[in-house]
Amino acid sequence: MRKAFICPTKYVQGEDEILNLGYFIQTFGKSALLIAHPDDVMRVKEKLDATAEKFEVTFVESGFQGECSRQEVARLQELSKEKQCSCTIGLGGGKAIDTAKCVAQGDALIIVPTIAATDAPTSHSAVLYTPEGAFDDYAYFKQSPSVILIDTTIIAKAPTRFLVSGMGDALSTYFEARATAASYSKVNAGLPCGVREGVCPPAVGTNTALALAKLCYQTLLADGRKAKTASECKQVTKSLENIIEANILLSGLGFESAGLGSAHAVHDGLTILEGTHKYFHGEKVAFGTIVQLVLENAPQEELNTVLDFCLDIGLPVCLADIGVDRISDEELQAVAEKSCIPEESIHAMPFPVGPADVAAAIVAADKIGADYKRARGEKE
Hints:
Largest sheet: 6 strands, parallel
CATH class of the largest domain: Mainly Alpha
CATH architecture of the largest domain: Up-down Bundle
Structural class: alpha/beta
Pfam families: Fe-ADH
EC number: 1.1.1.6
GO molecular function: glycerol dehydrogenase (NAD+) activity; metal ion binding
CATH topology of the largest domain: Dehydroquinate synthase-like, alpha domain
Family: Belongs to the iron-containing alcohol dehydrogenase family.
Strand content: 5-15%
Binding site for glycerol: 119, 169, 264, 281
C-alpha cells in the first residue's frame, strides 16, 4: 500500500514574529518578492521595515493586483527574475498566498498569513482564477512552502469572523480524515505536479495524518470558545495560540495528508446558491460537516457535540445561517449533483453516495440544525 504525507519545511508561530521575517529571507539570499494586497502591507509596514533593517534584506513590492490568475502569475515571475529576487513571500489572505505559491512553483517560498480563516497556507496546492475572478484550475507543486510564519499579534487583531470561519474549516478535518481512512481513498499528499498525466500512482493517508486530524478536533473543542473571546478582545492568549495552530497547521496537514470527504464536496455544491456567496468558506464547510454526519448516521451524542460547538462560537448549523431561507427542489437537486461530480471528494466516503443521498442529508441536516438551535433558545 502506497502512503504519503506532505508538510512545510518549517512552521514558526509567535507574537510579533514578522520581526523575524528577515532572518528567513536571509537563508535564501538578500531580497524577496513581496506578494500582498496593499492594505495588508500597510497593516504590517512598521514590522516589515524593522526586519528589513535588522537583517539587511530588501522587499521588492509586486503591485499585486488581487487575483490569482495565469496572467498575474506570469507578470510576477518576470518581475522576480528581473529584480533577481532570492525568494517569494505570500502575505495576507488566500489570493495572495495562492499567487505566491504559483509564482514560486515550490521553491524558496515563505507564507505569512494575516488571518487564520482557512487551512490553505501549509498546502502544496493553489487555486487559479481568471482575471475576472472565475474559477480556472487547481495547481499542485513539488513541495509545500519552505516557511510558514505566523504572527499571532496580527491575527489577534483581525476581525473575529475570520478566526471562527477557520474553525469551521478545521471542524471538518477529523471527520473527513476518518471517512477517507475507512475507504482507503487517495489523498492530496500523493499528488505532485503531473499526476493527472499518470506520472506516479496515487497514495492513501498515513496514521500520522489521521492522528493530527483528531488532535485538531480535540483542540477546537477544548479551546475554540476561549479563543473566540480572546480574538474579540484582540488579545493573544494560550487558547488563541492553540486555535491558530489548529486552524492553520493541524487542519492543513490533516486535509492534505489525511483526505477530504463529504463536508467539502457539499460546500462546493452549496456555492451555486446565490445566498451563500457572502459567507466564508469555513462557514459553509461547517454546515457541510453536519450534512456529512447525517450521511454517516453518526451517533446522536457526536452530532450534538458538533452542533453545540458551532452554536457556541457562531458557526452555521442550518441553511438559513448561510443565506438560504428557501431552497426549491430544483436548486436542491442542482446542489446535490454538483456535490457528486466524479472529481469531488464525496467519493472518498466509505460507502456509495449519490445525489439523492446528498439531497436527503441536506434537508435532514437543515431541520436538525434549525430544531437544535431553536431548542437552545438561539435567535433565528
